[in-house]
Amino acid sequence: MLLARVIGSVWTTQKEKGMENIKLLITQPLNAKREHQGNHVIAMDRLGAGVGELVLITQGLAAQKVAEEKRPPIDAAIVGIVDSFEVNE
Amino acid sequence: MLLARVIGSVWTTQKEKGMENIKLLITQPLNAKREHQGNHVIAMDRLGAGVGELVLITQGLAAQKVAEEKRPPIDAAIVGIVDSFEVNE
Amino acid sequence: MLLARVIGSVWTTQKEKGMENIKLLITQPLNAKREHQGNHVIAMDRLGAGVGELVLITQGLAAQKVAEEKRPPIDAAIVGIVDSFEVNE
Amino acid sequence: MLLARVIGSVWTTQKEKGMENIKLLITQPLNAKREHQGNHVIAMDRLGAGVGELVLITQGLAAQKVAEEKRPPIDAAIVGIVDSFEVNE
Amino acid sequence: MLLARVIGSVWTTQKEKGMENIKLLITQPLNAKREHQGNHVIAMDRLGAGVGELVLITQGLAAQKVAEEKRPPIDAAIVGIVDSFEVNE
């Protein structure tokens, strides 16, 4: 998974089947020093994450399994809102 | 998903089974500042996206599921045409 | 998918089950300006692509589905030979 | 797989179904010279790996199969704690 | 697939189910000029590849299919030992 910060939202009207009623957030992956790490990822959110919050993002086919019944054509999902993390390097 | 701008089209005559009648667009992934972010991606389009439009791209096996019945051997598909996005960093 | 140019061939004698009689080409991914974009990819070819030709490459598990009956342990396949492409940036 | 060093832990309260009772570690991928190689990866751990230990990380859908019965929506898992490695370059 | 050179071995005692009796090699991906290309990959080997040999590596879920009966939680496998390759750029 990636550690990321929610930085915004995306809206679409014309979309593929399965993408209806999906909340899509723009996230900035971070390293454990909270520095930017890699490219922006658009992720499905079902946890109610808000702008500024730290989240965990799962990528690839596993993301799709978050929306169990529907299997929307997504490749990234927020799977947790981060309470805290600790690093000892 | 990736945010990307449609920048062109690709045509093939000799192709693998399942690739017939698939519209393929060339896209430039962007970050939320609309700056180039990573390499060009060739994506299947079934939404009628045009050059210059912002789109959302799903990569990997989930992309294939967009073409439900046929499962073409693709690894990227446009899953939404972006109306707007908002960033608060 | 990636746009790429075929630049060579690879031969193996000792190989895993399912890799027999598979033609493997070395390809250089390109952007839409025909500049090098990313690392060399070794891809299965069933279309008869030749050195110098532009091709489309699918990566990941979808590549495997090109060889329908056999499912060789590959992660990249040529799915089309490019006739032309057009970019309006 | 990636060679990585465990550098910390992440805790979440709000999480997707299937993420309950999963231990998540922050890891720094390394090359065979023990130099940093690529971005931090958050991985599921079921082996009891501790901070400072070298581990092997599997990414993608195969990671999910580590938790056989549950299939949590993860994309990275620790599959081994490294005893030693040897390089002859 | 990636072209890579075998540069070493990794040993683990504590490991996930399915990782028993799997030979793990450290490989350095190369481009067709035999220059380093990307990060070290730890790959399963069932072909008896030795240090210094050139190999082809499959990544992702297809790698897992190399070990047909067992499906270990791996994401990279050696699928061929390279006899020769030819580039005409």
TrEMBL record, chains A, B, C, D, E:
<keyword id="KW-1282">Carboxysome</keyword>
<dbReference type="InterPro" id="IPR004992">
    <property type="entry name" value="EutN_CcmL"/>
</dbReference>
<dbReference type="Pfam" id="PF03319">
    <property type="entry name" value="EutN_CcmL"/>
</dbReference>
<keyword id="KW-1283">Bacterial microcompartment</keyword>
<dbReference type="GO" id="GO:0031470">
    <property type="term" value="C:carboxysome"/>
</dbReference>
<dbReference type="InterPro" id="IPR036677">
    <property type="entry name" value="EutN_CcmL_sf"/>
</dbReference>
<protein>
    <submittedName>
        <fullName>Ethanolamine utilization protein EutN</fullName>
    </submittedName>
</protein>
